[in-house]
Design a protein that fits this description.
CATH superfamily of the largest domain in chain B: MetI-like
CATH architecture of the largest domain in chain B: Orthogonal Bundle
CATH topology of chain A: MetI-like fold
Structural class of chain A: mainly alpha
Strand content of chain A: under 5%
Mean pLDDT of chain A: 86
Radius of gyration of chain B: 23 Å
Helix content of chain A: over 70%
Radius of gyration of chain A: 22 Å
CATH class of the largest domain in chain B: Mainly Alpha
Distance between the termini of chain B: 15 Å
Mean pLDDT of chain B: 85
Number of helices of chain B: 11
Helix content of chain B: over 70%
Number of domains of chain B: 2
Order of helices and strands of chain A: HHHHHHHHHH
Largest sheet of chain B: none
Low-confidence stretches of chain A: none
Structural class of chain B: mainly alpha
Oligomer: heterodimer
Number of helices of chain A: 10
Number of domains of chain A: 1
Distance between the termini of chain A: 25 Å
Shape of chain B: flat
Amino acid sequence: MSAALIRYSPLLILAIAWQLVSQFEFVSSTALPPLTQIGAAWLDLLTSGDLQKNAVPSLYRGGAGLVLAIAFGTALGIAMAWWRPVNVVLGPLVEAFYPMPKSALIPVTVIWLGFGDGSKILLIFLGCMLPVTIGAYNGARSTEQVLVWSARCMGASRLRMMWDVVLPSALPELLNGIRTALALAFILMVTSELIVAREGLGNLIGFLGANGSYAAMYAVVLTVAFLGFAADRIYQTLTQRVLAWRETGLA
Amino acid sequence: MSRAANADERNPAGRVVRGAIWAAAHLGSIVGLLVAWEIFARSGAVTMFMLPPFSAVAARIWADGVDGNLWLNVGLTLYRTFVGFLLASVIGVGIGIAMARTRWARWFFDPIISVGFPMPKVVFLPVVILWLGVFDVSKITMVALEAVFPVVTATVLGIQGVGHELVWSARNMGAKDRELLWQVLLPAAFPQIMTGIQVALPIALIVAVFAEMAMGGFGLGGAMMQASRFADSRGVFAGIVEIAVIGYCVVKGLAVLRHHLLLWHQEAVSPSTV
């Protein structure tokens, strides 16, 4: 307990400094409302239900896009690692589109699917798929040949080998790719909602900012930041559990 | 791979042929995709609004290039990306060195970095607008804010991973702190720092385009949003193609730079994954 207190005390110091600086108006309190005021605004949003009402569509979009990206990305990456023709055709495309700034796709997904959930899910799916693909590809390629030969020798079918040998040994790199995708999903969720949306946390932030209710805006901003942080921590705990059979775990 | 490398040493012509096949395969799929785009768009399955044919988009890019808008927008986007990216690299390496070398810096920054890294920093956009307005300063701040974290973590890990033997030998030969840092620690940690910087660059570009979209004005992101508002789907797709090409060039450029900077390192000998 006290170790955690010492470890996280810098954050506490920053929070106190924030409170003091805005309390005594060293900076304008519109630009930086005191933390107490932000806390009060947060409670207001929670009791009026605005926060939950907007969080649900946001998390739904992020979750749906991410799940699709993980399913397709994993399949694509393993296919690329295992069938040469697939790699020859798709490898260059993956390489060409991987560095593309995904936020550029926002207007296109709007043209295709409009302003609703569909365009956000498509955007998150497209943006998150390639990191997963590359993780799965690198992981599956590094499967030890000895394991593959042994499995073959013991009469494993191709499909069974995929499932029992290739997928587990690709898992560490794949899970790393998914972690990148998780962070990207949050970024794309917020950016797309800030730019074009009728509901969602990003839209709520834009709306409150335009209205000049800055304390409430800060409250939602900090909520989204915390959600991103919490999702990453939960994911890391889960992956450590999944990878417990490895000697080193996820580095 | 090592057998192929040996074959290359014995037969330089084989290397050229291999390179040519590689390039052909790469170009082949890109060209294939563009042809498929053109055919699909002209097939009537989708409207011209949803997917203009590639030839029309290319014509649009050409027109933008002739009247100079393309270069203005590309220049501005690259300027914001690179200024933010360079700031993030310098500040990130600085904080990383401080964290790896001094206890108080480690104590202070460690929780901030470990909490801040997984957060979507783009969400602070309205706050940054509130403080700094909607012009270059705030766009560059957004870029630097998001790009600095991977550089810090890579620098800390890189410096901590330098072998004790190297440090002890340098100390034994009388190296002072400053010499130790510049002549031993930074060069030894450089591959990892460079990896962090390579992670930061695409992030910088993503955020630059997003900031331009959200704040408006010139730049590729702003131009795309403008086109989108006027339902000018050729303009939107032209923006996508331009941004994709720029992203590819910038990331490849940094990989080439890494290869040149790290020629002395053993990774340059073995085939690199980047």
